[in-house]
Amino acid sequence: MSRIRIVVGPDDFDLSRECAALIQHDIESGAVAAFVGRVRDFGPDSVMTLEHYPGMTEKALAAIVDAASARWPLSAVTVIHRVGPLAAGAQIVLVLTASRHRRAAYDANAYIMDYLKTEAPFWKLEETGAARTWVEAKAKDNVERQRWDS
Amino acid sequence: MKTLHLVYFARLREAFARSSETLSTDAATGAELVAELAGRGGAWADELGGARVFRLAINQDMARLDDVLPDGAEVALFPPVTGG
Q1: Tell me: the pLDDT tens digits for A97-125?
Q2: What is the interface pTM, i.e. ipTM, of the complex?
Q3: In chain B, which residues have their Cβ closer than 8 Å to the Cβ of A119?
Q4: Inter-chain contact B81–A118, Cβ cutoff 8 Å?
Q5: Mind telling me how many Å the CA of B24 is from chain A's nearest CA?
């Protein structure tokens, strides 16, 4: 049974602090993989706003992490996803996976991100000055998720 | 007749100028509900009646158009997700 921490909210996160908490009192996990997603600069004064579906978001993330835990031997998982307005360079998402084995930590981390990007109900709105654009889903994201089907 | 609590997100929320509504309907499936909403015309027809892609969730689980709508369900309509 892996230790799971899932947070959805406006607050920023600290990678080293989350990493330390993930493996506190854990001397079995030989591997920790970390992924941090950030807001890319998409123009002057650009602001990205993350909208989500409260209730379903947490449920969808928990299901994704449960599926990863069933597939790989994970000792601990942390998923933090921010919502609300975020400036260029801001952190959006953190996924930490700890396991006895390197390959499990890497693969489970990528699996969680691939499913998060296609099944967790978040939407990005990009604003630069007067222009506002809802980001369109990318076909590539579905292709990357489907590689786990085999 | 059943009662559904409808919620909309992102582009659809803005296009429909509302984030939620309660609907009394005879729609048995997601497809029937979508056809009823598209029948309102305007932005409803544009978003739900044509080529634009949208997703459906029933009681906070991703669903398909042919899934049955239980009475009292929370039904969400939104664009394909773009988080991460």
Answers
A1: 999 999 999 999 999 999 999 999 999 99
A2: 0.95
A3: 62, 81
A4: yes
A5: 23
